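Lecture notes, unit on binding sites. The following record was shown on slide 14. It pairs a sequence with fe (ii) ion.
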Amino acid sequence: MKIGELIQSGDWKGEKHVPVIDAPASVKAGEAVCVKLCVGAEIAHPNTPEHFIAWIKLYFKPAGGKFAVELGELDFNVHGELAVEPKGCLSVKLKESGTLIAVSYCNLHGLWESSAEISVE
Ligand SMILES: [Fe+2]
């Protein structure tokens, strides 16, 4: 068993667990850009003490590189009447084109991923 076999995917418009990456398709090298991440953009995911999104991690795989770089993580620590929504932004500076990969974690339904190509000029 490999961890990758446990990471589910799908179309975020129909599957509420899939993390959504909202980033420009093209950015300038070294310029800080906001990569917005969320779960439940189309269909809201529950946010209760029993069922919640715990975190979203963002990775970057350079087109010319072999390994994923972990860029950052958004943690969502309160669920219920007082809650933090599973969304946020990471300000990212890139040097080369590649693939952004987001992984989210639901405490009941496990790991989910999505990716987006980003071009650096
Ligand atoms: Fe869930």
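Take-home: The chain has one domain: 3-120.
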